[in-house]
From TrEMBL, chains A, B:
<dbReference type="Pfam" id="PF21597">
    <property type="entry name" value="TetR_C_43"/>
</dbReference>
<keyword id="KW-0805">Transcription regulation</keyword>
<protein>
    <submittedName>
        <fullName>TetR/AcrR family transcriptional regulator</fullName>
    </submittedName>
</protein>
<dbReference type="InterPro" id="IPR050109">
    <property type="entry name" value="HTH-type_TetR-like_transc_reg"/>
</dbReference>
<dbReference type="InterPro" id="IPR001647">
    <property type="entry name" value="HTH_TetR"/>
</dbReference>
<keyword id="KW-0804">Transcription</keyword>
<dbReference type="InterPro" id="IPR036271">
    <property type="entry name" value="Tet_transcr_reg_TetR-rel_C_sf"/>
</dbReference>
<dbReference type="InterPro" id="IPR009057">
    <property type="entry name" value="Homeodomain-like_sf"/>
</dbReference>
<feature type="domain" description="HTH tetR-type">
    <location>
        <begin position="11"/>
        <end position="69"/>
    </location>
</feature>
<keyword id="KW-0238">DNA-binding</keyword>
<dbReference type="InterPro" id="IPR049445">
    <property type="entry name" value="TetR_SbtR-like_C"/>
</dbReference>
<feature type="DNA-binding region" description="H-T-H motif">
    <location>
        <begin position="32"/>
        <end position="51"/>
    </location>
</feature>
<dbReference type="Pfam" id="PF00440">
    <property type="entry name" value="TetR_N"/>
</dbReference>
Length: 176, 176
DNA sequence: CGCCGATCCGGACACGTGTCCACTTTTCTC
DNA sequence: GAGAAAAGTGGACACGTGTCCGGATCGGCG
């Protein structure tokens, strides 16, 4: 029995990778995986074992930001009716997206896998449920749908039209 | 003056590339550029000069399909009111997207460049304009917005929810 | 017909991604 | 503390993308 604990060097390696990635992202928005590996002083194998995809790494780097975003949902719900809260939350997402494309990439890697269940999806679910109870948002909408619609934010040309398109999306989610 | 005409071999090469690409796509949905080059018996340079991006190549391959899609817009408008026509057209897009992801990729490469002006955008503009005149579709929507929203179709997990999400989008574009 | 220069060819390169596995290091056990 | 097994390492590889440029090739012209 007695599960072996994870090796000390493994932990520090993982931490150093995230650290290095964060630093690299301050200078450019590029994030070559092999550069991360080299800068962190680890091999490609180590990097990819810790973070199978670039998204996984970005998710870790921007975890804090994502957490703020997720946490803002209940706050908004406390201060506004569900529809307004939802609308405001969408704007928050857009703002984050504009500053750091990475946040977007992170949430796009959305875990469809079992157990893990994406916190962003959770936040959206909350907002949708509130709107549903309130009778202002369509009942046939799931977080998955919203995530799909929000995907446009990752396109580079979306920046300017973002808020307008969000308007259209929001309009479509309201009950008629 | 007297513009030199394009060399005969250049023309045949271009044609052969498209031909080969089409054949490769019948077996798999993958389309490695270097494989195309090799199969067509040309160098990478030649391939990339003719089609700078994979999307450009796909656009050429699926040109016929896209043309059908574009041509269907006026037909639908002739037989239905603008809102219905638009809704039906969106379904057409989704159907094409499901069968051939390539069509999607093709239209996503949407020429923002001058002069060329994307035929798909043209079709959308027509539909939108009709809806605007009719008073059933929002006046503040551009083809660009619709294209952005339609982007979700290229995500692999969109397949099942596609029609539902299109419903939401359509709902958002209607006047309230 | 044959030359000349514009045009086009095509493969070598530089680079990034992601996988694989022989080897090293760490932890546990005694 | 010593030994062994497990856990982790890291760099070589295979592959795909896209660029670049020396040289072959074609079309125009005398």
């Amino acid at each position: 029995m007695a599960e072996r604990r994870t090796r000390a060097d493994a932990v520090s390696n993982r931490a150093r990778i995230v650290q290095v990635a964060r630093e690299l992202l301050t200078s450019t928005s590029e994030l070559p995986m092999n550069a991360v590996a080299k800068a962190a002083g680890v091999g490609q194998g180590t990097l990819y074992r810790n973070f199978p995809t670039r998204e996984a790494l970005l998710a870790e780097v921007y975890k804090a930001d994502v957490d703020v975003l997720v946490a803002s949902a209940p706050d908004l719900l406390a201060q506004h009716d569900a529809a307004a809260a939802f609308r405001l939350w969408l704007d928050n997402v857009a703002d984050y997206a504009r500053v750091k494309r990475g946040v977007l990439a992170a949430l796009e890697g959305g875990e469809l896998a079992a157990g893990h269940h994406d916190p962003i999806a959770g936040a959206i679910d909350r907002l949708l449920a509130a709107g549903r109870d309130e009778g202002t948002l369509r009942a046939d909408v799931g977080a998955q749908d919203v995530l799909l619609l929000l995907g446009f934010l990752s396109r580079p040309e979306a920046a300017e039209r973002a808020h307008h398109v969000l308007d259209l999306i929001f309009n479509g989610l309201r009950v008629r």
